[in-house]
Write a structure and sequence with these properties.
The chain has helices at 2-18, 22-33, 38-44, 51-90, 109-122, 137-140, 174-182, 225-240, 293-298, 315-323; strands spanning 127-128, 134-136, 160-162, 166-168, 189-198, 210-220, 246-253, 256-265, 282-291, 307-314. The protein is α+β, with helices and mostly antiparallel strands. The longest helix has 40 residues, at 51-90. The N and C termini lie far apart (88 Å). 3,4-dihydroxyphenylalanine is lined by residues 171, 173, 215, 253, 256, 287-289, 310-312. Residues 171, 173, 215, 253, 256, 287-289, 310-312 line the site of 3,4-dihydroxyphenylalanine.
Length: 345
């Protein structure tokens, strides 16, 4: 028996030495340790061995099993190492090659502008208030002094969600109404309301069915148009530089009286006339006015005691002017170049 085991060992050693491929090792393993392998067969013979020899037979069996296992494992290791070395050689990295530049992201232009304007107003004690984009006709029009059938509704035709009472807001002005209604003591208010607005416009370079507005409302005692002008001047200088001039032109909004258009001096030609300002020297950036007494009353305010100013900017328009973007659709068509490397927002 002992000789038989020694012979097996020799045989395994020799066959291992000749092996070139990993698959051959697998065959070899099953030739000895597989179901019908030589060592496995040997183990079945233990039942025929006389009782007193069983122990030494068992020891020898263990010995050859351990030997075979260890030999196969160490051969497997040789193969593994060889494979690893080959792989390392193939995939060697040249650390002297220049790396791939990972570009930092920057905020979307509109988001950057919003945060910039919000920070400015918060520094003046304003709160930032948001309202729903799906709005009631009551807040979007009715309480803003725009009853059904009012001609000024035509310019703000929007998308109706349910009957003619629930719609996508056409302006951020309903947030004024919501805030004044919710203010229980009917005291002073200072808010700005940024957000998305919608209109049934056909999209082109200067129109979009979805756009962003920035609303402002200040209510207090003794507020005058001069306060509005001061506030507008601060915004203009903040966005377009210290030498930005402002002017009001009279206008009409049902929810303000008087109403104005807010113009800034053309930052491009400084009044000489160019394509951006259509040779007028001025650029209109928003609407504003003194809150109409009827709107104050609609929201439970005493219009004899309290007054206020309100304004609304189109944010895309401001961003287009500030960054020289010529097509409003750029904001919504995922062209990342409009945000690239912008360090000023
Ligand atoms: N909501 C107006 C619009 O979308 C803009 C506006 C004008 C807002 C005058 C105001 C305002 O608060 O006082 O055209």
């Amino acid at each position: 028996m002992k000789e038989e085991i020694e012979k097996l060992k020799e045989e395994i050693k020799n066959r291992l030495r000749d092996i070139k491929k990993e698959e051959e090792l697998n065959n070899l393993k099953s030739d000895y340790l597989g179901k019908n392998g030589k060592i496995t067969e040997l183990s079945t013979k233990i039942k025929d061995v006389p009782k007193e020899e069983k122990k030494s037979f068992g020891l020898l069996l263990n010995d050859i099993k351990t030997f075979a296992n260890d030999s196969f494992i160490s051969k497997q290791k040789e193969f593994d190492e060889k494979r690893l070395n080959e792989q390392l050689e193939k995939e060697s990295i040249d650390v002297t090659l220049p790396g791939t530049v990972i570009r930092n992201g920057s905020p979307n232009i509109l988001e950057g502008m919003l945060e910039d304007i919000e920070a400015l107003f918060m520094s003046m004690g304003y709160d930032v208030v948001e309202g729903p984009e799906v709005e009631k006709d009551l807040y979007n029009f009715e309480l803003l002094n725009l009853p059904k059938g009012h001609p000024a509704r035509d310019a703000q035709d929007t998308f109706y969600i349910k009957g003619d009472e629930i719609l996508l807001r056409s302006q951020t002005s309903p947030v004024q109404i919501r805030t004044m209604l919710a203010n229980e003591n009917k005291g002073p208010i200072r808010i700005i309301c940024p957000g998305k607005t919608y209109r049934r416009d056909d999209d082109d370079a200067s129109h979009s069915h979805q756009f962003t507005q920035m609303e402002g409302l200040l209510v207090d005692k003794d507020v005058s148009l001069a306060d509005l002008k001061g506030c507008f001047s601060i915004i203009a200088k903040h966005l377009f530089g210290e030498d930005a001039k402002t002017r009001f032109r009279s206008s009409y909004y049902p929810f303000t009286e008087p109403s104005v258009e807010m113009d800034i001096s053309c930052f491009n030609c400084h009044g000489d006339g160019c394509a951006i300002c259509k040779s007028t020297g001025w650029i209109t950036v928003g609407g504003a006015g003194m809150v109409h007494p009827k709107v104050l009353q609609n929201c439970g305010y005493d219009s004899e005691e309290m007054s206020g100013f309100a304004f609304g900017f189109g944010l895309e328009r401001l961003a287009m002017l500030r960054y020289g973007i010529t097509d409003v659709r750029t904001f919504y068509t995922n062209d990342l170049r409009i945000n690239a490397d912008r360090k000023d927002v």
